[in-house]
Amino acid sequence: MIDRGSVAEQVRNLYPEGVNKVLELIGTRTLKDSLKCIAIKGTVCMTGILGNEWTMKDFTPMGDIPSMGRLTVYMGDIENLSKELLQGFIDEVATGKITLNIDRVWSLDQVPEAHQYMEDNKGKGKLVVVL
Protein backbone atom coordinates (compact mmCIF):
# COMPACT_ATOMS: atom_id res chain seq x y z
CA MET A 1 0.00 0.00 0.00
CA ILE A 2 1.31 3.44 -0.88
CA ASP A 3 0.37 6.25 1.48
CA ARG A 4 -0.54 9.35 -0.48
CA GLY A 5 -1.87 11.17 2.57
CA SER A 6 -5.10 9.19 2.65
CA VAL A 7 -5.14 5.46 3.29
CA ALA A 8 -8.69 4.80 4.51
CA GLU A 9 -10.02 3.82 1.08
CA GLN A 10 -7.10 1.45 0.46
CA VAL A 11 -7.45 -0.09 3.92
CA ARG A 12 -11.18 -0.58 3.45
CA ASN A 13 -10.57 -2.23 0.06
CA LEU A 14 -8.31 -4.77 1.78
CA TYR A 15 -10.30 -5.03 5.02
CA PRO A 16 -13.92 -4.01 4.37
CA GLU A 17 -14.82 -4.21 8.08
CA GLY A 18 -11.81 -2.08 9.02
CA VAL A 19 -8.77 -2.94 11.11
CA ASN A 20 -8.56 -3.35 14.86
CA LYS A 21 -5.54 -1.15 15.50
CA VAL A 22 -3.91 1.85 13.85
CA LEU A 23 -0.65 3.44 14.97
CA GLU A 24 -0.85 7.08 13.92
CA LEU A 25 2.61 8.63 13.54
CA ILE A 26 1.90 11.66 11.35
CA GLY A 27 -0.53 13.20 13.82
CA THR A 28 -3.27 15.75 13.38
CA ARG A 29 -2.88 15.99 9.59
CA THR A 30 -3.88 12.34 9.05
CA LEU A 31 -5.80 11.50 12.24
CA LYS A 32 -9.28 11.72 10.70
CA ASP A 33 -8.21 9.42 7.87
CA SER A 34 -6.76 6.93 10.35
CA LEU A 35 -10.01 6.94 12.32
CA LYS A 36 -11.86 5.95 9.14
CA CYS A 37 -9.73 2.79 8.98
CA ILE A 38 -10.86 1.16 12.22
CA ALA A 39 -13.40 -1.59 12.73
CA ILE A 40 -16.10 -1.51 15.40
CA LYS A 41 -14.32 -1.23 18.77
CA GLY A 42 -11.05 -0.53 16.90
CA THR A 43 -8.35 1.71 18.37
CA VAL A 44 -6.25 4.50 16.93
CA CYS A 45 -3.19 5.35 19.00
CA MET A 46 -1.62 8.66 18.08
CA THR A 47 2.02 8.67 19.08
CA GLY A 48 3.70 11.02 16.67
CA ILE A 49 3.43 14.50 15.20
CA LEU A 50 5.55 14.02 12.10
CA GLY A 51 3.17 16.28 10.19
CA ASN A 52 4.37 19.22 12.32
CA GLU A 53 0.82 20.35 13.16
CA TRP A 54 0.18 20.21 16.88
CA THR A 55 -3.46 21.27 16.93
CA MET A 56 -6.46 20.22 14.89
CA LYS A 57 -9.03 22.50 13.34
CA ASP A 58 -12.59 21.36 12.83
CA PHE A 59 -12.34 18.19 14.93
CA THR A 60 -15.72 16.88 16.05
CA PRO A 61 -15.22 13.95 18.43
CA MET A 62 -18.74 12.56 18.02
CA GLY A 63 -18.48 12.86 14.25
CA ASP A 64 -14.83 12.04 13.60
CA ILE A 65 -14.37 9.15 16.06
CA PRO A 66 -16.45 6.21 14.81
CA SER A 67 -19.16 4.96 17.14
CA MET A 68 -17.57 2.56 19.66
CA GLY A 69 -14.13 3.41 18.28
CA ARG A 70 -11.29 4.40 20.57
CA LEU A 71 -8.74 7.17 20.26
CA THR A 72 -5.77 7.19 22.58
CA VAL A 73 -2.32 8.74 22.68
CA TYR A 74 1.09 7.64 23.82
CA MET A 75 3.57 10.30 24.86
CA GLY A 76 6.75 8.62 26.05
CA ASP A 77 8.12 9.92 29.29
CA ILE A 78 11.32 9.14 31.13
CA GLU A 79 9.32 7.07 33.62
CA ASN A 80 8.16 4.81 30.76
CA LEU A 81 11.67 3.79 29.72
CA SER A 82 13.57 1.31 31.83
CA LYS A 83 17.31 1.86 32.09
CA GLU A 84 17.89 -1.86 31.48
CA LEU A 85 15.94 -1.90 28.20
CA LEU A 86 17.65 1.25 26.97
CA GLN A 87 21.10 -0.10 27.86
CA GLY A 88 20.27 -3.40 26.16
CA PHE A 89 19.36 -1.52 22.99
CA ILE A 90 22.55 0.56 23.16
CA ASP A 91 24.62 -2.60 23.66
CA GLU A 92 23.02 -4.30 20.64
CA VAL A 93 23.72 -1.24 18.49
CA ALA A 94 27.33 -1.19 19.72
CA THR A 95 27.85 -4.90 18.89
CA GLY A 96 26.17 -4.60 15.49
CA LYS A 97 23.18 -6.81 16.37
CA ILE A 98 20.98 -3.81 15.58
CA THR A 99 21.92 -1.49 12.77
CA LEU A 100 20.53 2.00 12.53
CA ASN A 101 19.75 3.62 9.22
CA ILE A 102 21.62 6.91 9.48
CA ASP A 103 20.79 9.28 6.63
CA ARG A 104 23.10 12.18 7.46
CA VAL A 105 25.31 13.52 10.20
CA TRP A 106 25.19 17.25 10.92
CA SER A 107 27.31 19.55 13.07
CA LEU A 108 25.69 21.72 15.72
CA ASP A 109 25.93 24.84 13.57
CA GLN A 110 23.99 23.01 10.82
CA VAL A 111 20.90 22.39 12.97
CA PRO A 112 18.75 24.91 11.02
CA GLU A 113 19.63 23.10 7.77
CA ALA A 114 19.03 19.70 9.37
CA HIS A 115 15.66 20.81 10.67
CA GLN A 116 14.61 22.09 7.24
CA TYR A 117 15.85 18.84 5.66
CA MET A 118 13.63 16.94 8.11
CA GLU A 119 10.63 19.24 7.54
CA ASP A 120 11.01 18.79 3.77
CA ASN A 121 10.77 15.00 4.28
CA LYS A 122 14.11 14.45 2.56
CA GLY A 123 15.49 12.14 5.23
CA LYS A 124 15.66 8.42 4.51
CA GLY A 125 16.83 7.48 7.98
CA LYS A 126 17.95 8.98 11.24
CA LEU A 127 19.46 12.45 11.27
CA VAL A 128 22.31 12.82 13.75
CA VAL A 129 23.66 16.04 15.24
CA VAL A 130 27.19 15.85 16.63
CA LEU A 131 27.96 18.16 19.53
Overview of the molecule:
- The chain has a 3-stranded parallel beta sheet with strand order 1-2-3. A two-stranded parallel sheet has the order 4-5.
- With 131 residues, it is an alpha/beta fold.
- It has 2 domains: 8-73, 3-Layer(aba) Sandwich (Rossmann fold); 82-130, no CATH class.
- The chain is globular, with a radius of gyration of 18 Å.
- The mean pLDDT is 90.
- 29% of the residues lie in helices and 23% in strands.
- α5 (111-119) links the parallel β4 (102-107) and β5.
- It is built from 5 helices and 5 strands; from the N terminus they run αβαβαβαβαβ.
The arrangement of helices and strands along the chain is: HEHEHEHEHE
Tally of distinct domains: 2
Mean pLDDT: 90
Structure class? alpha/beta
Unreliable stretches (pLDDT < 50, length at least 5) are none
Number of strands: 5
Looking at the structure, the CATH topology of the largest domain is: Rossmann fold
Strand order, main sheet: write it out: 1-2-3
CATH architecture of the largest domain: 3-Layer(aba) Sandwich
CATH C-level class of the largest domain is: Alpha Beta
Shape: globular
By CATH, the superfamily of the largest domain comes out as NAD(P)-binding Rossmann-like Domain
How far from one another are the termini? 39 Å
> Helix amount, in percent?
25-40%
**Beta strand %:** 15-25%
**SS field, number of helical segments:** 5
